[in-house]
Automatic annotation (TrEMBL):
This is Aminotransferase class I/classII large domain-containing protein. Residues 31-135 form the Aminotransferase class I/classII large domain. GO terms for molecular function: pyridoxal phosphate binding; transaminase activity. Homodimer. It holds the Pfam family Aminotran_1_2. GO terms for biological process: amino acid metabolic process. It comes from Quercus rubra (Northern red oak). Keywords: Pyridoxal phosphate. The keyword RNA-binding does not apply. Gene3D superfamilies: Aspartate Aminotransferase, domain 1, Type I PLP-dependent aspartate aminotransferase-like (Major domain). It comes from the Eukaryota. The keyword Transferase does not apply.
Amino acid sequence: MIVMVRILLTLMGGRHDNKPYHPIDNREGVIQMGLAENQLCFDLIQKWIRRNPKASICTAKGVHEFKNIAIFQDYHGFKEFRQAVTNFIHKARGGRVTFDPSRIVMSGGATGANEIVMSCDAFLVPSPCYPVFPREGLISNLIFCETHLDDSFTIIHRVI
């Protein structure tokens, strides 16, 4: 990936930084596609955090710091982010579900998730999802099960 990014940056001459795409203002601009992190919606996330401070794990004061949470480097997943995920799931399921954040591993993408699973492990992938995920599941002999999350979703043995 690093080599690909370097090649892409060399070929583009850094144009992704100084000529970014915008659907109205710069339709000829460049979208950086050589990174694993989604950097296309940081501005939208910042606006949402400002409008919904109680729903966010960030505060309005720290709105610019969310990138440190969104693009974490801790290979287990940023501790505060894992705690926020467990809090969110607990709240979303009406307090009926609890998770130990130390037993949650965050992944930077579908490939990373496939590489860390062991036989008989399971992880939920919301649907619709990353379109290549079913193909990548074949690499690690996973069975791909789309999980449509709605109010009546329950985890049962058949799903896992």
